[in-house]
Each structure stands twice: as C-alpha cells, then as structure tokens.
C-alpha cells in the first residue's frame, strides 16, 4: 500500500481477542488477533466526494449491496449497504487521487481512473476459510487488471458490453486523459479468467491498449458509449463535444472514425450522455 496513515489510538478486547485501531484519517478498523485479519472498518468522514457508483456482490441481486466512492484520496472506498451493516473497505494500489468510476451492466465489477495515469479493474471475490468451507465471508474487492499508457491524469471512463457478429461477448473499456487521447482496451478475456472466485489473488495483469487516438486539443473531461456501443461521445476543455463511430469488425482491429462535432458551448464541456432508448446525446457544462 502506497498510502501510510498514522495511528491515533488502539484498544485491545481480550474477551473477543480483537484490536480496534483509530487512525488519523478518521477511520476505525477492527482486527482479529493474532492473524490481523480485517473484521470491520468504519469511516468517520469521506471528505470531498468526486464520484460514486452502486455495485452488487451478486448479479442475481435486485438491489445494490455496496457503494463505491472516489474521494480526494488514492483509496477507493467500498461501503456496505446492508440495513444493519456499517462497514467500509479501502482499496489500495493507487499512488494518486482517484478521479472517476465506471461499472459493468450487472454492477458486479467496476473500473477506477486516477491521477496516477492508470485505470484499474476491480471485482468482488468471496473469501472462504478452508477449515469451514460452508461459511462464506464478506466479499473482498481485488484488482484483476491494470491499464497503463496515458501520460497525464486519467479522468474519464466508459464501458461497452455487446455481442459481436459471431455472438461472442465483448467488453471494451474506453479511457480518456488530459493527454488528450482516448484509449480502448479489451477486457473480455480478463473478466472471463476472473470468474473463478476460488482463484488465488495473483498479481493483476497489465493490459495493452487496442487503440490510442488524440481526439481533442485540450483535456478530455468525459466520454460515453451509446446504448448499442456503436458510438463513443467525448466532451473536452476545448468547448467541443465529438461523436465517433466504433467499428469492432474492422480487419485491422477496432477503429474510431469521427462522425460529428458538436459546437456551441462557451466553456469546457463536463457532461455528455447518450439517451438509452432515443437517438439523442446530451451535453452540458
């Protein structure tokens, strides 16, 4: 973990053999002894909240079970949403502030983008005690892939999930930066390999981008795939929104082709969103 937090106070509970640690970042963390296994974590303050995303630990669940929160910190916070649950997990691995989050359609995995110029793909796994295989512990979130290559802060993400012409499930991740470039990444094989919840927590793989393209003259603030994944929209500090057609059947691999430029804003564009059921795109400051 690249983030080191001071300890204000500790309390030992001999009855339950646990240690409560009060840290200077306004968190209380409860550990089992002597293993130092994390039991529960309570956060007193989240500071400035930059982005949030609802998540599910199980795709079959009707309601979200967790909330991912990006704050002015390198740590993504995962809050449990159970009625009687007051737990927060801090996900390490970043060296600078997390700027954006994007989740899958089924909400079981998500991606975070950071000032450290990279994106990380996170997925929930159940931890089991080998001596008590019937007991399933709380889900733990683990990095399954890292996307590196941008040369400045990575501040925008969008995920596309679709079936190709052969009926194969494809998952693409678009990342955008202050470069100002957009990169496309194929997450399909990475997510398939991560389906085994009993797989060991190996070092996450580093992915290679399928495409890198400069699409604006200034920082890219936001990107969004259309519902059918045929278009990618972008909004930038250059006061322009742009639309690109996405061709994932090209012989040379995936391609982006400029389909339109939207002008009229007097300042940088901080919002772009395709409507789900209508052929419209919204832009805003």
**Which outline best applies?**
globular
Distance between the termini: 36 Å
- Average pLDDT, rounded to a whole number, is 86
Helix share, percent: under 10%
Main pleated-sheet profile: 5 strands, mixed
Percentage of residues in strands:
over 45%
Structural class: mainly beta
- The low-confidence parts are none
Order of helices and strands: EEEEEEEEEEEEEEEHEEEEEEEE
The total of beta strands comes to 23
What is the radius of gyration computed over CA atoms, rounded to a whole number of angstroms?
A: 21 Å
Total helical segments: 1
Strand order of the largest sheet: 9-10-11-12-16
Pfam family, one: WD40
GO cellular component, one term: nucleolus
GO molecular function, one term: U3 snoRNA binding
Keywords: Repeat, WD repeat
């Amino acid at each position: 973990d690249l983030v080191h937090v001071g300890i204000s106070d500790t309390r030992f509970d001999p009855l339950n053999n646990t240690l409560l640690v009060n840290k200077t970042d306004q968190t209380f963390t409860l550990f089992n002894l002597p293993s130092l296994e994390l039991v529960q974590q309570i956060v007193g303050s989240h500071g400035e909240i930059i982005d949030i995303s609802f998540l599910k630990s199980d795709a079959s669940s009707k309601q979200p079970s967790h909330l991912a929160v990006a704050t002015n910190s390198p740590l993504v916070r995962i809050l449990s949403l159970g009625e009687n649950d007051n737990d927060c997990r801090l996900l390490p691995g970043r060296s600078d502030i997390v700027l954006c989050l994007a989740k899958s359609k089924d909400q079981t995995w998500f991606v975070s983008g950071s000032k450290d110029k990279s994106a990380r793909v996170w997925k929930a796994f159940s931890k089991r005690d080998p001596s008590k295989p019937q007991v399933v512990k709380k889900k733990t979130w683990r990095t399954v892939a890292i996307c590196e290559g941008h040369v400045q802060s990575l501040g925008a993400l969008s995920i596309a999930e679709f079936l190709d012409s052969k009926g194969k499930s494809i998952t693409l991740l678009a990342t955008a930066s202050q470069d100002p470039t957009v990169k496309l990444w194929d997450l399909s094989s990475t997510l398939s390999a991560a389906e085994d919840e009993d797989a060991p927590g190996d070092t996450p793989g580093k992915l290679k981008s399928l495409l890198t393209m400069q699409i604006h003259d200034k920082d890219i603030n936001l990107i969004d795939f259309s519902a059918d994944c045929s278009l990618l929209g972008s909004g930038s500090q250059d006061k322009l929104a742009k639309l690109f057609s996405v061709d994932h059947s090209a012989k040379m691999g995936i391609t982006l082709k400029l389909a339109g430029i939207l002008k009229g804003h007097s300042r940088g564009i901080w919002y772009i969103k395709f409507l789900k059921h209508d052929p419209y795109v919204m832009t805003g400051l």
